[in-house]
Design goal:
The complex is a heterodimer of chains A (519) and B (483).
Chain A (H helix, E strand, L loop, with lengths): L8 H17 L6 H25 L8 E9 L4 E7 L1 H24 L4 H20 L3 H10 L1 H11 L4 H34 L6 H5 L5 H18 L8 H8 L2 H26 L1 H6 L1 H20 L4 H22 L2 H32 L10 H4 L1 H15 L5 H16 L1 H26 L6 H4 L6 H19 L2 H31 L2 H6 L3
Antiparallel strand pairs in A: 1-2
Chain B lengths: L13 H19 L5 H23 L3 E3 L4 E3 L1 H21 L10 H19 L4 H19 L6 H32 L4 H11 L3 H18 L7 H8 L2 H26 L7 H21 L4 H22 L2 H28 L16 H4 L1 H15 L5 H15 L3 H26 L14 H19 L4 H9 L4
The chains are: A mainly alpha (519), B mainly alpha (483).
Chain lengths: 519, 483
């Protein structure tokens, strides 16, 4: 691994998919098989490239690793700064892991405009990796907003009936949050310049800045709104069911698996380190919304007749757990939140894949149209069962580890929220098992269902890696927790130190806060 | 008394002279030889523009004054000249795609275009109001004719008449303002006015004069509430002419406004920041809201250009050098993306039988004409300010300048406006890619010149979105008005 330190591994990882997309532009659209194989091989190559990143990553080092820092627009203080730490590593791995599976899952279901579809997914992968790896706020914003374009096309071109509505809603919601964050980024930039004389958008510089707690509040909310819409937290979740239901299977998997994590990642990466006092002061609000999301999402899932909508609302509930864990601000809860981000990506991603597989066969997603599939499709139902159990947090599978750590960590700090959130665990068992029962057990009385074919080799190949990873995290989470522990600890330590320092600044108040004000 | 003749430094105005010579050549040549092809005529126009560009770049390292202070060739002026010449190049290339089915005198068209560019260059490379007026009139008269170029069509004539009437009003406001300023201070040169005002105190005459000058240019830049003519004129004028009007004229108006705001009034005598902020909010919001309800693509782009004037005003309100530098950057991107968008319309909008200007008529073209549709999608995302396009970095710099000056609420309104604008820009993208056509659509074959214009605009927009490189330094140097 010695050459890993000299090679710009993160740049290669990020831009390899984009390079592939450019190549695809020049492949004639009739060559659909070639386009499919090319994309699959390329995304697999990205995944293989990410493996040495994971093994070479030093879990004991809490800082950024494999850093690349070059000047990009020096006169404006914008740099090309990439790096990975314990918080982003798992997200990068998850992105690299899920993308080839999504390509594989679209093998037969996407038959029109294959070339454009594959190009969009490759561009999307670059944007997603860029979001997780950027250590410059403008670079981050570039990927964050740029990511909207491919996803917008994926929903709008290959989506269902109401795809145009869903696509534009997705775009407008996310951009609305994003632009307010941009104003806050600019304000941060001038604050830092005013304080230190150095005008820069660099993450490491800005994260060390001390901002008087009064000025933190609006900045915190500007950032939080962008991320809360993305997560999505209650009550900003209304775009999610539309986007999920209308998106093609691959789009749903990426949306649930990775795009939503950008929101929770943003809270961890920016909101808490940048604005410790505001995060402390308004943490209750975020946790309250998280708990409402957990319970509300679960209740709404319970009554959904549509499988995809059910899974979509269950995301609101699951991500409520992640948000709770992050803002409880204990080591266990934050690490639980991190691992739960991965878990949700795996289990919800797999659920969307499974729903996509029966949708391809039956062209319906209504729970009432199924029943008794266990008899007809035993392999499908086996996978479905494992993923369902993973999603509701059965010990031995991945979901348990994350939820348990979150609840344990939260209980230490905020007992009431932990107790309320626990009801979400029970509710998730209720709605998932009810759904599972209605789809797979009972009489196989619908003639359309009696001719259903079980999963083929390609479909099994799509699901097996996910199931294996679910088991791995469930049985031996240390592999993954070890990578993030030091970074999470450092984040919490710095949070506390910063709180104390800013308390001092606030005491000096008056004169001091005027200096910090950008005017 | 002995009169000393003012120093004549022709080298200072060499770009203007080159453009003027080419314009005269283009106007006269067809009188002697009738059978000149449009390619030949366009070659003369392009050669003139490129030569002027070279002269402009040559002048970059030696900015100075001349003609007894009537001509100011600072880097601010030179940067704007470059913009106009670039806009002119794109317009000539787009025009090659047969402006209309009707018989068109290309010599006249290109000649008038170059005259208009000459006017733009004159009015920006001076701080003397009389010369500004001279340039403005040269520009306007050429544009009145160009707007009515499709003389067999009612809407083109309507456009020309409206533009003429309102343009005359605007000029009237401007002249009246200049007269008041002269009355108050006895000066016509901006820095002299400022000195005189600072010495003798500034009366209401001067303030009223400055505001009238602002109104005059608000008409030209299509700022709300002086924008009423824009949609009709943009819709009726031939598409390449619209492309030119929406970029060149707007840029020049902003150049003069920036000079007026920075130079004319002594510090603290007039609240430019507040006035421009109010105009900015009105212009952005009205432009965007009106653009949403349009069903004609050219009208949509007309209102969109109003909205963009609003974004530019945000940086002008900031009143700092960063703002002027950002305005230059944004105008460069805007010239590329807007001319590009009109270029696409000049191509796809010309169906085999009728003009295609409704959103619906672009259905499903994305897969039939992949290159031109991709270009249009990029221009739309760029106009909406989505990264990684130049439109994003441009807006980023505009808003950064305003945040720097402390106008945070104004910037919040501006970014929310940008979100609103996504709605109508994406409507075109939706029609191109996400809706199927009822019947297979055909567009006429495009001229290679048009394709070249689109390639230049496309590469430029993407390039400015990721690698502004040394340009920022150039614009920063240009932003220091008066050297």
């Amino acid at each position: 691994m010695s050459d890993l330190s000299t090679m710009p591994i993160l740049t290669i990882l990020t831009f390899l998919p984009l390079a592939g997309a450019l190549v695809l532009l020049f492949v004639p659209r009739q060559q659909e098989a070639l386009i499919r194989y090319f994309t699959l091989v390329l995304t697999l190559a990205v995944f293989l490239l990410s493996l040495p990143l994971f093994t070479a990553f030093d879990g004991a080092n809490p800082g950024f690793q494999f850093e690349e820092n070059r000047s990009w627009i020096p006169s404006a203080g914008i740099g090309y700064h990439l790096g990975v730490d314990g918080i982003s590593l798992l997200m990068v791995m998850l992105t690299a892991f899920l993308t080839p599976l999504v390509i594989l899952s679209s093998w037969r279901s996407v038959t029109k405009k294959v070339k454009e579809y594959m190009i969009m997914f490759l561009v999307l992968e670059t944007a997603m990796l860029g979001v997780f790896l950027s250590l410059d706020l403008v670079l981050f914003y570039l990927f964050w907003e740029g990511m909207l374009i491919p996803m917008y096309f994926i929903i709008g071109v290959w989506g269902g009936e109401r795809r145009l509505y869903a696509a534009i809603k997705f775009f407008l919601f996310t951009m609305f949050g994003g632009v307010l964050m941009l104003v806050a980024i600019l304000a941060l930039y001038f604050m830092h310049g005013g304080q230190s004389g150095i005008y820069t958008f660099d993450y490491t510089a800005l994260s060390q800045m001390l901002i008087a707690s009064k000025s933190q509040v609006w900045l915190f909310f500007a950032f939080s709104l962008a991320f809360a819409i993305k997560v999505p937290m209650f009550p900003f979740h209304t775009w999610l069911p539309d986007a999920h239901v209308e998106a093609p299977t691959g789009g749903s998997v990426i949306l649930a698996g990775i795009l939503l994590k950008m929101g929770t990642y943003g809270f961890l990466r920016f909101c808490i380190p940048f604005f410790p006092n505001a995060a402390q002061q308004y943490g209750w609000l975020i946790m309250l919304l998280a708990v409402i999301g957990i319970i509300y999402g679960a209740l709404v899932s319970w009554v959904q007749p549509d499988l995809k909508k059910l899974v979509a609302f269950s995301s609101v509930s699951h991500l409520g757990f992640v948000m709770l864990g992050i803002f409880a601000l204990t080591l266990q809860s934050v690490q639980g939140g991190l691992i739960q981000m991965v878990n949700h990506g795996l289990s919800t991603g797999a659920l969307f894949l499974l729903v996509g597989m029966i949708y391809e066969r039956r062209h319906t997603r209504m729970i009432a149209d199924f029943g008794g599939l266990a008899r007809q499709m035993p392999i499908f139902v086996t996978f479905f069962l494992i993923i369902t159990l993973s999603s509701i947090g059965l010990p031995g599978l991945n979901g348990f580890v994350g939820e348990f750590m979150i609840l344990l960590g939260t209980f230490e700090a905020h007992k009431i929220f932990a107790v309320l959130a626990t009801t979400g665990v029970i509710l998730s068992a209720v709605y998932m098992l009810t759904m599972f029962q209605r789809v797979n057990y009972g009489k196989l009385d619908k003639p359309e269902n009696q001719a259903l074919k079980d999963l083929n080799g390609r479909e099994i190949a799509t699901l097996v890696p996910i199931v294996l990873l679910c088991l791995w995290i469930g049985l031996y989470p240390a592999t993954f927790l070890d990578k993030s522990e030091a970074a999470a600890q450092k984040m919490l330590d710095e949070h506390r130190i910063k709180l104390d320092k800013i308390a001092l600044i606030d005491e000096l108040s008056g004169s001091q806060s005027k200096v910090i004000n950008p005017k | 008394m002995e009169l000393s003749a003012p120093l004549i430094q022709l080298d200072l105005i060499s770009p203007q002279l080159i453009v003027l010579a080419a314009a005269i050549l283009l106007l006269l040549l067809p009188l002697f030889r009738r059978s000149l092809s449009r390619e030949f005529l366009s070659a003369i126009a392009l050669a003139g523009l490129v030569a002027a560009l070279v002269a402009t770049i040559w002048l970059w390292s030696r900015p100075s004054w001349g003609f007894a202070g009537m001509v100011t060739v600072d880097r601010f002026a030179l940067a704007f000249q470059t913009l106009f010449l670039l806009g002119g190049l794109l317009t000539v290339l787009i025009s090659l795609n047969r402006v209309e089915e009707e018989y068109v005198q290309y010599g006249d068209l290109f000649g008038l275009l170059l005259l208009a560019i000459f006017g733009l260059m004159v009015m920006t490379s001076t701080t003397h109001f009389l010369i500004v007026f001279l340039g403005l009139e040269i520009l306007s008269i050429a544009l009145y004719v160009m707007a009515g170029y499709r003389k067999m069509r009612v809407d083109s004539l309507e456009a020309a008449l409206k533009y003429l009437l309102l343009g005359a009003f605007a000029t009237g406001f401007f002249l009246y303002g200049v007269a008041l300023i002269y009355g108050a201070t006895g000066q016509l040169e901006m820095a002299h006015i400022r000195e005189a005002a600072a010495a003798g105190g500034s009366g209401w005459l001067l303030t009223a004069g400055a505001l009238l000058v602002l109104v005059g240019f608000a008409f030209k830049a299509a700022l709300v509430p002086f924008h009423m003519w824009t949609p009709d004129v943009y819709q009726g004028a031939p598409t390449p002419v619209t492309a030119f009007m929406s970029t060149g004229t707007k840029a020049a108006a902003f150049a003069v406004l920036a000079r007026v705001v920075t130079l004319v009034m002594p510090e603290g005598t007039i609240a430019w920041g507040t006035i421009l902020s109010i105009l900015a909010v009105l212009t952005m919001t009205v432009g965007n809201l009106m653009a949403i309800v349009q069903s004609n693509v050219k009208r949509m782009l007309a209102y969109s250009s109003i909205a963009h004037a609003g974004y530019l005003l945000v940086a002008l309100a900031a009143g700092n050098a960063a703002g002027r530098s950002a305005i230059l950057y944004y105008l460069l991107v805007y010239t590329l993306m807007n001319a590009g968008a009109f270029g696409v319309i000049a191509w796809l909008g010309r169906g085999l039988r009728e003009e295609r200007l409704s959103f619906e008529s672009y259905r499903g073209l994305g897969y039939r004409y992949p290159f031109v549709s991709l270009a249009m999608a990029v221009f739309m995302f760029s106009l909406a300010g989505i990264p990684p396009t130049g439109g994003f970095l441009g807006k980023f710099f505009l808003f950064a300048a305003a945040v720097k000056a402390g106008y945070i609420p104004l910037v919040v309104i501006a970014v929310l406006n940008a979100v609103v604008s996504v709605f109508y820009y994406l409507r075109l993208v939706i029609n191109l890619y996400m809706r199927e056509a009822d019947e297979p659509a055909e567009a006429a074959k495009a001229h290679p010149g048009l394709i070249a214009a689109l390639v230049i605009a496309l590469i430029g927009v993407l390039w400015l979105g990721v690698a502004p490189g040394g340009l920022l330094g150039v614009f920063d140097a240009a932003a220091a008005i008066g050297m």
